[in-house]
Amino acid sequence: MTSEAFKGQDQEHIRQRTYSYAMEEDIDVTSHTEALNGLSYECKPLEEITNGHSNHKPLMNGLIISHNVKDHTNGSAPLRSLPISALKQNGLLQTLAAGGDQPNPTEENMELEKAREEWEALEHVQPALNEDLTPTPLISFNEALQYFQTTDLGDFLKNIQPTIRRTGLAAITHFLFGPPRLHRELLEERDLVFAIAQCPVDNSQTVHMRVLQTIYKRLIGTKLDCPRYGPHWENIGFQGTDPSTDLRGTGFLGLMHTLYFVMDPETLPLARDIFKLSQHVTQNFPFSVMSINMTRIALQVLREEALSKECNRRQQVVGVLNEFYVATYLHLYQLWKTQQKTIADSGFVLKEVELFAKKNPKQMLRRLEVFLKERQAGGIPRGTSPDPQGQQSSPSLGERAARAGAGQGSKGKEMHFTGVCDLPPDMEGEARLI
């Protein structure tokens, strides 16, 4: 028998085996010949019907690609175990799809090993923390203020209410017996303050983010930046992971006042003393939220024109308001510390501080001036004694303020802190942390 005859019998035998296999498995097999490296392959996928579901087994160059086969990198079955993503990443999938020449086993092993190393390297990549980067430079109060002075705040200026609207007899009484009006040349500066109090925190503004970072660093005493969101903000007295949610009623001015407090060399020690008290085991309170309340009180006093006389005398609004904010926080700090207040008393204490601030703005500013001078002189300012027996009541503070007032040619009033039980019942609903 000739070689052609043997070859014909072999081909017939292969066709019979293929047909028999297809009949046994109940699979329709379509034979298609691809001329790739001289080999012929079956290109139509095989399907097995199991419980009414179809298992699709794709063929690639005649080989069934299994997704459950373990990875073999010894060159015996590289295309079976390599993920599609790795093939695509290393150019092998494009080569096979384009019908190019198959790489030799050595080239395949090199490509597969390279893909495996790249994939394993991805598992060890860690996102860079902000602390690892160059720290954000601190920002001064004047630099932040200059930013707002050169920014278009027209939309916010439309919604401000710089003074209390009075009508009828109240307007006449205020005109005749109330505080003087603010000088005309200071109106623009006053309106700027109220416009800033309308501004929300903007994550896209570098100045806004620097203000937040500066406040955090100065209070905590770190040089590293912190994430924009996170529980670390609660460590400096915000109520949640996002400081901007606590700025109700004060807008960005609440942060500006805190920035002034921690960046002024004269007031920074006081800010840290108050922050330390806010961390006390029993007398703790949220430092930043309380600071925002001090800003709210200062704004209200300015709106009622109780600071107009001092602003006119010094020919500035921002500086006076900054000092009055610090004086208000000092007043609360001394009251809180000497009378052993706790967070349960916060509502009553805030209302008491607000009433006193509205009635005695000049006295509060003078008290702050004396306090800072005594501190610079190296002594312990009165009203900050850690011993509650040594400073139980506030008349001594009032006497000191009275003496300071006498030096100015005016009669100072004695300070009097009303007790919790002395507050009228109708104040209970208003006295609360904002």
TrEMBL record:
Xref: InterPro entries: ELMO_dom (IPR006816), ELMO_domain-containing (IPR050868)
Question: Disordered: where is this region?
Answer: 377-434
Q: Which organism is it from?
A: Channa striata
- Renumbered to this chain, the Low complexity biased-composition regions fall at 385-405
Superkingdom of the organism of origin: Eukaryota
**Which residue range or ranges hold the ELMO domain?**
207-361
Protein name per its UniProtKB record: ELMO domain-containing protein
